[in-house]
Design goal:
Layout: H1 11-21, H2 31-57, H3 63-72, H4 77-103, H5 109-124, H6 128-143, H7 150-174, H8 180-204, H9 214-235, H10 242-268, H11 284-305, H12 317-331, H13 340-370
Helix pairs in contact: 1-8, 2-3, 2-7, 3-7, 4-5, 4-6, 4-7, 4-9, 5-6, 8-9, 8-10, 8-11, 9-10, 10-13, 11-12, 11-13, 12-13
């Protein structure tokens, strides 16, 4: 008897379930193309506005403001804030080191010293992204021919970059703003759906042929986790309530832990096609697997709605685990008729299933506490 009682979720369901809810459309103007057009329009607006302001303020090299706005303007507010911080820090360091090193010595030694100082200080400050920008600023200040003083060139450079950053932040925040935390919320919901699909694919290979889309689902889960980690970094730059920040961070950690547990389960079910000892654990093993399957989908819905108070109807993981442990104790003496490898494999599988169930339960309860909701118990009254 195989543990999966129904067909693994299709890739189509996993890919579009949440996207459709966010307003995606089929046809020429798809959801991705709408975002592309919005990003293009915001970038063009920021660049043009910087150029117009530079002309109004009489900046000699105002195009650097447009360049800065184009570079720092990202697809969401949080990423724009992070890029702006790195560029401003890099420009300030480049202006200081470029001017200071141009006061004494002659190229190339003073230029080499300025570059060395910028990279080292950026690393010590934990902002390696700013190092490249600092070096670019140093190069402009020290090597580009200029009629004015190096100090004036440094101040102009900082002012132009600051103008571009301010315009980019205003456009990102005020013109059709895209919040990284909202994308991260839906990305995490999508992640739990894909992890649930991966779980079903792994169970399809338990005492049966491996699922044909198991590798694809594992790669999809890895890609989602990596993408959500990037969104989490961007979301930390956005102002939000502590519940949002802590809840998103906690769910990201649970997602990574669940993926590791699923990979361990995937390894445990290998070579299980002839196992018979697992049949001794029914129906407790089957019931726990079915509740885990439902738990992944329920958690995805909780994340998307950002409501974690209510437990999944009809699911009691602790009772499922207690029943499975009681069943394991009952059949322990029957293991003499089975190979040691088969017994160890079944023990490993049930341990991983219990770990996944407890992670799913903890993900709801601890996230509920983080966002400030009173968590309801999933124990029967």
């Amino acid at each position: 008897m195989r543990l999966n009682a129904k067909k693994t979720w299709s890739q189509h369901e996993l890919a579009v379930k949440l996207r459709v809810e966010r307003g995606g459309k089929r046809g020429i103007l798809t959801f991705e193309r709408q975002r592309l057009l919005i990003d293009a329009a915001k970038t063009a607006l920021a660049a043009a506005l910087c150029w117009w302001l530079a002309l109004r303020f009489g900046l000699h090299d105002g195009y650097w403001g447009s360049i800065s706005a184009i570079i720092v303007l990202q697809s969401n507010v949080g990423a724009t804030v992070g890029a702006s911080r790195d560029r401003l820090l890099g420009t300030l360091m480049g202006a200081v080191f470029g001017f200071a090193c141009s006061v004494f010595g002659a190229a190339p030694w003073n230029y080499v010293l300025a570059i060395l100082l910028a990279v080292v200080v950026s690393g010590l400050l934990g902002s390696r992204n700013s190092a490249r920008l600092a070096c670019v600023t140093i190069t402009i200040i020290m090597l580009v021919p200029s009629h004015g003083s190096r100090w004036t060139l440094a101040l102009d450079r900082v002012g132009e970059v600051l103008l571009g950053i301010i315009v980019a932040l205003l456009v990102s925040t005020l013109v059709l703003p895209d919040r990284a935390r909202v994308w991260l919320r839906d990305g995490l919901a999508q992640e739990f759906l894909v992890l649930g699909g991966f779980f079903e694919a792994v169970l399809e290979g338990f005492r049966g042929a491996p699922s044909p889309n198991q590798l694809t689902l594992r790669e999809d889960a890895q890609a989602l986790i990596q993408g959500n980690n990037q969104l989490l970094e961007a979301a930390r730059n956005e102002p939000s309530s502590p519940g949002w920040s802590e809840g998103l961070s906690m769910l990201s950690q649970f997602g990574r832990s669940l993926f590791d547990a699923l990979v361990a389960l995937e390894f445990s079910v290998k070579d299980s096609h002839e196992d018979r000892f697992a049949q001794q654990l029914e129906p407790a093993l089957q019931r726990l697997a079915a509740d885990i399957r439902t738990g992944f989908r329920y958690m995805a819905g909780c994340i998307h709605k950002w409501r974690f108070q209510n437990p999944a109807p009809g699911i009691n993981f602790e009772q499922d685990i207690a029943d499975l442990e009681a069943r394991m104790e009952t059949v322990r003496h029957t293991g003499i008729g089975f190979s040691q490898a088969e017994i160890l494999r079944v023990y490993a599988i049930q341990l991983h299933l219990k770990q996944i169930a407890r992670l799913l339960r903890a993900a709801r309860i601890e996230t509920c506490d983080a966002v400030g909701e009173p968590a309801k118990s999933d124990q029967p009254a």
